[in-house]
Prior knowledge:
Elements: E1 6-9, E2 12-15, E3 18-21, E4 36-42, E5 47-53, E6 58-64, E7 66-73, E8 84-89, E9 95-99, E10 103-110, E11 115-121, E12 130-132
Antiparallel strand pairs: 1-9, 2-3, 4-11, 5-10, 5-12, 6-9, 6-11, 7-8, 7-10
Bound molecules: dtdp-4-keto-L-rhamnose.
InterPro entries: RmlC-like, RmlC-like_jellyroll, RmlC_Cupin_sf
Protein name: dTDP-4-dehydrorhamnose 3,5-epimerase
GO biological process, one term: polysaccharide biosynthetic process
Amino acid sequence: MIEGVLKIPLRQIKDDRGKVMHMLRATDDHFQKFGEVYFSWINPNVIKGWQKHLEMTLNYAVPVGKIKLVLYDDREISKTYKQINEYILNQDDYYLLSIPPHIWYGFQSIGNQAAMIVNCATIPHDPNEVRRMDLSEKKIPYNWEIEHD
Ligand SMILES: Cc1cn([C@H]2C[C@H](O)[C@@H](COP(=O)(O)OP(=O)(O)O[C@H]3O[C@@H](C)C(=O)[C@@H](O)[C@H]3O)O2)c(=O)[nH]c1=O
């Protein structure tokens, strides 16, 4: 697992009326600070990325649909520099993924419905601290076409 990435299982409290899905509390050990919450909807099979933040820590959960999230560690001082991780996030495998800055990420909506990522970010959106790279960039040796386990 890429250094500094946290995968925190989340509770879903179900009853016959529906359910409550936890995400993040200010009292959680891994809570840093609140910046902004926003939702990114992704249409079926669409891939978004590559992106990385210079300052923001991302706190992701996927309450709707199914997402394959791919991370690439771009921190030369990191023990996991250049490591690639894959995650599947959905209601059946429901967890918070906390991603530090300087890690490239891309995500694909898999399954036949649109998916939604919730990001409870540590800073408000600032386009100046976001970097983007085309999915075809060879810097990240990842093939989105291959079904990875
Ligand atoms: C993320 C964001 C985007 N925008 C604008 C910028 C742009 O015009 C449009 C689309 O932005 P993006 O291409 O960055 O959106 P998107 O491709 O959905 O990617 C976003 O996915 C979520 C999960 C994140 O974590 C964000 O950091 C970002 O990576 O929306 C805001 O106004 N506020 C925001 O907080």
